[in-house]
Design brief:
By secondary structure, the protein is of the alpha+beta class. The chain has 10 helices and 7 strands.
Length: 357
């Protein structure tokens, strides 16, 4: 016995009869559906069909890609369901009809529809409840981990950052998820040689104070990054804390041993450098002390001391004496008198010669 048609809307403009049951959820506005369909008029004439295509027809609810009644029909179906729908012209091609498909004006339509599958539309972040955001963070974390395993660390980092933005729950479950994503970001940054960022994410995971296993991982991630930036004392402290949590963890034990050896080598090298510095002179003392003036000592007979008048005597000897100066002046005066006498004699001779002439 065939099922009877039921009204999907109050005015009876869209009626439905199930031909094959489906299962699962119902699609909503924005869902992307894959369907098979066939449309006929009241006289049985087929005006449209997707059955001649190799692939199902893709239809998005809310876009009214075909007729208005399609959205109402699909929102009542489950995946795998087949149904027959009767629609009045108000939910079909209306008063104008469709000349391209040979649908007359004010024509009633009958569709046979099969919902192959559909995808629910993704809500925007601000449209989600905290629980929905929590689930979205889990989904993105899973996607990020798959990308990380493919060694695509940069892309994985981007996905984990998106996952972190959805971690809004502040209960125990929410904090553990947030810490998990931060630890994944820490190791991504480490692989990308962003060591300070790796340390920051590990610190944030520690601040959430979640379970001991996550605390152990955070300390270990932080220690690895500290080793890379030569903060060996910090790394040693982190690894000792991690060792307190799990003294059987082989990775922690191995890194703890390595850091101790690195510190030992660093201290020995430092000691060697300081030892060399103390063994050699850091500067030449003669360059900073004033040079001493060497004074030659002249010993007089019967005395071993320097004569204090020696220098003064040398200076006076270098100048002409007053006696010599006086002699020189007398000679110069005598020469002048002889020159004047000669000139007078010459003038007298000239005068006499002029007179005689």
């Amino acid at each position: 016995m065939e099922a009877e048609f039921i009204n999907l809307i109050e005015d009876g403009g869209v009626k439905k009869r199930i031909l094959q049951e489906g299962q699962g959820d119902l699609p909503i506005d924005g869902s992307r559906c894959k369907i098979l369909y066939k449309g006929t008029l009241d006289d049985g004439t087929m005006f449209d069909s997707s059955l001649n295509s190799d692939k199902p027809y893709k239809y998005r609810i809310g876009k009214e890609q075909l007729v208005k009644g399609f959205d109402i029909a699909l929102k009542s179906m489950k995946v795998g369901e087949k149904a027959e729908f009767k629609m009045t012209s108000n939910y079909g091609y209306g008063d104008d009809g469709d000349s391209y498909k040979n649908v007359p004006k004010n024509a009633n339509l009958t569709y046979e529809l099969e919902l192959v599958n559909f995808k629910q539309p993704k809500k925007r972040k601000w449209e989600m409840t905290p629980e929905e955001k929590h689930q979205e963070a889990i989904n993105k974390r899973t996607k990020g981990t798959a990308t990380f395993k493919q060694l695509n660390y940069k892309e994985a980092q981007k996905i984990y950052k998106k996952a972190l933005s959805y971690c809004t729950l502040t209960n125990e479950e929410g904090n553990e998820l947030k810490a998990s994503v931060q630890l994944n970001l820490s190791i991504c940054c480490y692989q990308l040689e962003e060591y300070k960022e790796s340390i920051d994410y590990a610190k944030k995971a520690l601040e959430l104070n979640t379970n001991q296993q996550q605390k152990l991982k955070a300390l270990y991630r932080k220690a690895l990054a500290n080793i890379k930036i030569a903060e060996l004392e910090e790394a040693l402290a982190d690894l000792r804390e991690a060792f307190k949590i799990d003294s059987t963890n082989s990775a922690v034990i191995e890194e703890l041993s390595r850091v101790k050896q690195l510190l030992k080598e660093a201290r020995m090298k430092e000691k060697e450098i300081y030892s060399k510095l103390f063994q050699q002179k850091l500067y030449d003392e003669s360059e900073i002390e004033p040079k001493k003036i060497e004074i030659k000592e002249t010993k007089s007979e019967g005395s071993s001391c320097c004569d204090p008048n020696e220098k003064i005597e040398e200076e006076t000897q270098s100048k002409p004496t007053n006696e010599n100066n006086n002699g020189q002046i007398q000679e110069e005066k005598s020469d002048v008198r002889e020159q004047i006498k000669t000139e007078n004699n010459e003038n007298k001779i000239v005068e006499e010669s002029v007179t005689s002439a």
